[in-house]
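2 proteins. here.
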Amino acid sequence: MSKQLLFIPGPVTVAEPVLAAMGKPMIDHRGPEFKELQASIVRKLQPVFGTTSDVLLLGCSGTGGLEAAMTNMFGPGEKVLVAPVGVFGNRFAEIARTWGVEVEILDTEWGKGVDAKALKARLEADTKKEIKGVVLTHNETSTGVQNPLGPLADSIRAHGAYSLVDTVSGLAASEFTMDAWGFDVVCAASQKALGVPPGMAMVAVSARAWDKMKTVKSPRYYLDLQKAREFQAIGQTPCTPPVSIAYALDVALDLYAKEGATNVWARHQRNTDAIVAFAEGAGLQLFAEPGMRSVTVTAIHVPAGVNGDEIRKKLRVEHGFVLGGGQEKLAGKIIRIGTMGAITQTDVLAMLGALEIELLSAGLKIQAGSGVQAAVRAFMGPVPA
């Protein structure tokens, strides 16, 4: 196929205006043009994060943002409670261990969200305040789970621990209110719901988190957030930034504002609802439990007797649609469908039609059209009586 549409958890299909912005001539990253560009991006990002605090731009992937958050906030011997719901939550924990931070895991079965009552109970039991930080994943692409953050935030605020949140694949696809929830460090990245190529992480930092960072003496250089803050104050970055990605991000944020945040959230929800309806209509089992399902990635069990990797290969080669597979213990067991980036309802229906064709060709015993018709009905909404 000459063109592919990406229905994966990222990177995503990028809109033409955003791609075009990357073709702009280079500028001096120590000059006034970059200072203006950086300020424009930060100003537009703050309402997306739901904060009036600093939002720093780092030239790295989302994982770089997570490492920056951990290494700047906590040092060797400090204890954090990590509540993973999949691969990337575990990665956050591994970053902490790598830098000598003591990690306690609050276990959650994959496919489920963090139990707010269990988190509250563990924090209430920590009467000596040994837990210095709580680490959450807002949206877990490996399982298609999205944690409702409000109840989790309540328990953390009551305890007083610092909070680190990975919303790399969640930010901009649904409402995020960092200040109202009281989160301290929140990490996101360019290549997800904002629809920009990879290359830039965004890290929002609260006032009290800056105070905590002053007490951490562990070494860091490239990912030193205090240094990044000092340079951002003069309109620069400590090291050479990905200027082309910055141009693209600035345009993407303009498109986001033009569409309107609530409309963007509704679009992600509609696309997800259509995919869920397709799965249910075709008799397929969803991996994430109801009430905890992501609006950016839907995980579907591979039916017995069907080779999920072969299905995805045919979709990519013969139809031009790229879907994700399972990771680690879910390898070969689920198909993951991303809804981020520049995709339309027509694109979603075309992809689902191709998926249904390949499932039928693989011998799945379903009525032809059952899944796609359910998706169409989901897009149409309730039919008037």
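next one coming up
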Amino acid sequence: MKIVIAPDSFKGSLSAAAVAEAMERGVKRCFPQAETIKVPIADGGEGTMDSLIMATGGQAIKVQVTGPLGSIVDAAYGLLQSESGHVAVIEMAQASGITLIASNERSPLTATTYGTGELIKRALDDGCRSFILALGGSATNDGGAGMLQALGMHLLDETGKEVGWGGGQLKHIQTIDDRDWDSRIAESQFLIASDVQSPLLGPEGATFVYGPQKGVTPDMLETLEKYMTAWADLIEQTNGIKLHELAGAGAAGGLCGAFLAFFPTTMRRGIDVVIEYTGIDEHLTDADLVITGEGQIDAQTVNGKTPMGVAQEAQKFNVPTIALAGSVGEGIDKLYEHGINAVFSIMNSPMSLQHAMDHAAELISSTTEQVMRTFYLQQRRKGGIS
């Protein structure tokens, strides 16, 4: 029996690689002779860099950059090899992510993407001209302004002075001056791996949808939206790019919008980019089962999340897919139409969230074992396994 194990991370608990290890232990308890292929997956958010490095034999290049609140943080970018040369994987959460800030320190008015720009600059210095951008997990709502500044764009106030960092500074920008803009960007290609379709502005935009998890309070929403609107208006006046209602521009607090406005950029669904690089297709051709999963599975999973992307790929080869989750929400019936055959929660008794996170590895292994026992029995009845 051949089992392909292709989970995402269980955020706040286990990396995708650790989840895959736990699932493999569960498989082996039931079926020690099974061939297991571990392919940790991400969907363009956090963990994408590690997933692509593992899949391609790449390496992490360690860099010190400016964190979201201005202090120096340890970060990295992924360096992959391809037929056309070096490919840099820039995971914005490495430099500007919400996990770098304590929950009581979240500050969308001052949080900056400057460090993400520094990561890009370092990769350019190292000779990279092809980039994959993973934009999930941001702490910022600055419309990508900080990232632009790190790469030489001057954002000037009415007196001609450079503005500071953060979403609160967008209101002061009167001029976008590209006299020192890094010329190497025009020579490069940037692929945004994201499934976010939110526009920059409006009730479904960056501030209203994602702002609250970054510390945007209800009385701050309208103010930040006004600042972001002024930023979008200025970009349109400067280069004719209208980001206001552009699908995807709202990803990562508007960082995606800055890429779309000032970089040679294309966008693809994050899970599709990762699946292509991991080469999971090669393992699916003769697989008997795929096991995937992530921390939360619900109706939103159908919108390009890892379990859905993996299941759709497995469906091409008529391989059944079973998904495990820490929490199973409403609306999972939609998933059955797209290749997921069953969804299991790893919770085996009433427990707190903290307990589940602390014991996630064993819970995942135990649930995987039970899944395998059921699958094995069913296959024997069908005559598929002797």
